[in-house]
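anyone seen this seq b4? input:
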Amino acid sequence: MIFPWLEPIAQQLAQQYRAAHLHHGLLFCGIKGLGKQALALNLSQLLLCENDGLQSCGFCHSCELFKAGTHPDFHRLADNDKHHISIDDIRSLNKVMAERSQQGGSKVVVIDNAENFNESSANAILKTLEEPSANSYLILQCESLGRLMATITSRCQKITLSAPSFEQTQAWLAQQGVGHSLHSGLFHMHQGAPLALLAALQGEEALTYLGLAPKMDEYLKGKTAPFEVAGYLHNHKEQGLTWLYYWLQDVQKLSLGANQRLLVFAEHASSILQVANQLTVSQVYHLSAELLALQQAFRQQSGLNQELLISQFLLKIKHLFGAKQ
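predicted toks r here
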């Protein structure tokens, strides 16, 4: 089963395979929540299927093994989203790819989060990409091409996944049983990724983020203290800083003259515009970069006084906001 917005890509890849034109190295690139893994698994089953056709048959011996998770010619390097892909991992996969197929058909390796290659493992995978064995396929997945070595991307067929339209996403969410309508701000926050939106809407606090904009407005007008807003953000853990990041992005959008309908906090466009009129594009850019660095520090270092550091960051925003007043 493939998601409807991925069907054209899945069909194109299937046609290339049946015409013997499919590249041995494939790179699926797209933001989280578009279904890269589902596409990779769908193609993998087709490559291993014993029958002809543009879709895997689902009932041959190979398909049964694949569905049971026991196919000897399918290998996946997953759960590597929080650490680097080691050279030992790649050496093991290279050995598998160099061996003969146990079922007499294709061999398929899928690697999630390919941006987590380090220099050694990236160089190791190049051997398989440059000298592939017969009927072997390597499927890489990543969120950002810019984080991959050019020597890897240049040796792969790149498939970029795009989000469906707002209307298509809303219709699909309705089919999944999501009762309430899709909020445009939530759509923009998740960059239109249907699976991310589904996960958010199935939670109990999908629209909680909307509380940030009025809090920032009150803070910049001197009605609340920085530690109060910092406490609010800290209570929502990493999600809170993500909301603040998108608030800054809304400031940036209005600074550049974007349509208010593209904002995450569109209902508070007037107060955000006041901030946009006070800060330069460069200042907002550097604030956004600093916030991302702060999030990274919180992930990697325990023992940091997070509320204090968030308060200091908020003070910097207020200082820049008040500098022109």
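The chain has three domains: 4-160, 166-202, 208-322. Residues 73 and 104 are 9 Å apart (CA to CA). kinda curious what u guys think
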